[in-house]
Amino acid sequence: MKTLALTAMASLSLLHAQDAGAARRPPNDGKLRIIAFGAHPDDAEFKAGGTAALWAAQGHHVKFVSMTNGDLGHYASAGGPLARRRLAEVQQAARILGIQTEVMDIHDGELMPSLENRKAMVRLIREWQADLVLAHRPNDYNPDHRYVGVLAQDSAFMVTVPFYALHTPPVEPNPVFMYFSDNFKKPAPFQADVAVAIDDVFERKIEAVDALASQVYETVYGVDAKTRQDRLSRIPKDAAGRKAYARDLHGARYAAVANAYRDALVKWYGAERGKRVKYAEAFEICEYGRQPSAEDLRKLFPFMLVAAAAVGPGADPPGSGGARLFNGKNLDGFDTFLKESGLNKDPSGVFRVHDGAVHVSGTEYGYFITKKEYENYHLKAEFKWGDQTYAPRKDMARDSGILFHVAGPDQVWPKSIEFQMIEGRTGEVILVGDGASLTANGETRTRGETKNTRFARHGQGPWQNVAGYRSPENEVEKPHGEWNLLELIADGGKVTFKVNGKVVNEGSGAKPSRGRILFQSEGAELFFRNIELRPLGK
Length: 538
Ligand SMILES: [Zn+2]
What we know:
Blueprint: H1 2-24, E1 33-38, H2 43-57, E2 61-66, H3 80-97, E3 100-103, H4 115-128, E4 132-135, H5 143-158, E5 176-180, E6 194-197, H6 202-211, H7 213-216, H8 225-233, H9 239-260, H10 262-276, E7 280-289, H11 294-300, E8 323-324, E9 334-338, E10 342-343, E11 351-354, E12 357-360, E13 366-370, E14 377-389, E15 399-407, E16 415-422, E17 429-432, E18 437-440, E19 443-446, E20 454-455, E21 484-491, E22 494-499, E23 502-511, E24 516-521, E25 524-535
Parallel strand pairs: 1-2, 1-4, 2-3, 4-5
Antiparallel strand pairs: 5-7, 6-7, 8-25, 9-10, 9-13, 11-12, 12-25, 13-24, 14-21, 14-25, 15-16, 15-24, 16-17, 17-20, 18-19, 18-23, 21-22, 22-23
Helix pairs in contact: 2-3, 2-6, 3-6, 4-5, 6-9
């Protein structure tokens, strides 16, 4: 009886352990899962905060872990109160960046590459089911940084071993491990395998840096008391002054990274954009863990590359003149989003692929959307309407659209610019989400600021909201049931829409000016095929 009770209790506690892990695990929704280990509550934020914000903006799951509690990180205070303060600081930074954070309760300056800590890191990587693990390199001035590097190397293989640290299942496949950048030269200098432009999220990163006040505004080491006092006295005391100070100090750091690893920026962003990048973060592949191909790296850093993916190896059958975004067989390269079911859950088959086309049922509002962001391209897509219409647009003009330069998290409908598809008005521009903006015919319209947030297509005629409607003037669509060709040329801030070869809309000063591209389900059955994207100037 006693044995039985003990067994029951043991399995109960095992269950609890697993449940606790499950609660910390990100949803298995097809998005990336990244975990970054710093030694102290500021390292991951400084080294990868911008990249984390870019991942988070696309809905990917990012977690920062500090392997120590940072309780020595101040010239004048230490211990529990400082550790608590630094925990609150990284929690605030995590809210700003849109990520998760955890601080291990290990004393600052005392991290050891021990078996216990190796198991702790393995558990964290497994619970996160990480695709990518970031950490310091094992050569660094600070022993805590060094040992985070050693622990990451020691975990790189052990995370895959099924019977190691039994309480968490192994990560499959083995994650890719990468290092933060640093300036140490021996035994080998840092090598930038990837450099990420963080210009788009620079202000957000500075906000996160500003949240780490104990480190940014109050800490000066390794100098005599007088020099320290001199330096500290030059740091502004007011909030705006401090932030400006953080922007200068950290702006210079991330600009130095961009300049030091300019070659990597050009490699991943192309010469034109790569040369213009002002602020960057950089990462080196660890020799242990999965060894990523260039294509793997593009998937792990989906914002990094824009057009280069479209001209990358294998993207394009020779002589086809364009890169297929849609392969005609399945929705590889796309996520789906539905109003009721959310991301990558499509229980009723709103999006099905058959006969080389995506069949959109129209029964529920939502979309399929590229995983990657694009800018400076020529997009072509063919569509034809099906017969069905559904509430709340039952018997109304058949409606869909291509939303491009999508910025921010998935929702119905995300901030973007729309190439409207609706019977009788296909080719209209709609600005979607506050701040979306375009100038056409000398007039700038901005969602949230100007009343009118559309631009009619050239020669747009009268319109009625009824299924099967065709404009009595200048109709550009083919008769119902025939395929139509849509073209979108996005060239910096300039956009041009064409329907069946005819220019129907043009604008400039587009905001946003880059982003993902989505194809809507909006109450009407339709089909998309031959979706191709070609970088401009190629
Ligand atoms: Zn540190």
